[in-house]
Design a protein that fits this description.
With about 170 residues, the protein is α+β, with helices and mostly antiparallel strands. Helices cover about 25% and strands about 40% of the residues.
Length: about 170
């Protein structure tokens, strides 16, 4: 990637945005996902599904992707008791992050995660969780540098039999 190559960060808009991202995720992550999994995320939380795109030699390519969601996860407590108005806490979830191997080390993954955190914070998230393979040292270092804490080890979490860490960021 030349110093003149600009990276454009975009948000999901249409189904064709997914095709290059799916190819990247399939190459990068150990879990297989069906098209319905992607659609579950992008149709409900399009603002939390972002892409890093660059143009090189006249060709546009997906250099990175993040796919997230945000949902209620429990009621808010007031003075040690559940409040009657049942106002819920909100949990953001980072489901998938992938950066093309050719473009790693340029801050693309960090920028995508930062953008997702800020959007979730703006949407009212109280915390954000994700899972990462215990052997993915680069991803774990990045998340921990961004303030995520290892909450739990999940044994044989992935189809491959690999363990994962659940990481959490309190906002």
């Amino acid at each position: 990637m030349s110093s003149e190559t600009a990276i454009e960060y975009t948000t999901y808009e249409k189904e064709t945005d997914l095709l290059p991202a799916i190819k990247l995720i399939e190459c990068d992550l150990s879990e297989p996902y069906s098209i319905y999994t992607y659609r579950f995320f992008v149709h409900q939380w399009p603002e939390l599904c972002m892409f890093a795109q660059l143009t090189e030699g006249g060709e546009q390519m997906c250099a990175g992707v993040i796919i997230c969601k945000m949902e209620e996860h429990r009621r808010r407590m007031m003075d040690g008791y559940f409040s009657d108005d049942r106002e819920a806490l909100m949990r953001g979830y980072i489901g998938m992050v992938a950066v093309d191997k050719r473009f790693r080390g340029r801050g693309i993954g960090r920028r995508l995660v930062s953008m997702a955190i800020e959007r979730m914070r703006h949407m009212g998230a109280d915390e954000i969780t994700l899972e990462a393979e215990t052997g993915n040292k680069g991803a774990l270092a990045m998340y921990e540098a961004m303030g995520f804490i290892r909450e739990k080890r999940l044994y044989r979490y992935y189809i491959s039999g690999a363990d994962a860490f659940r990481l959490k960021l309190w906002l």
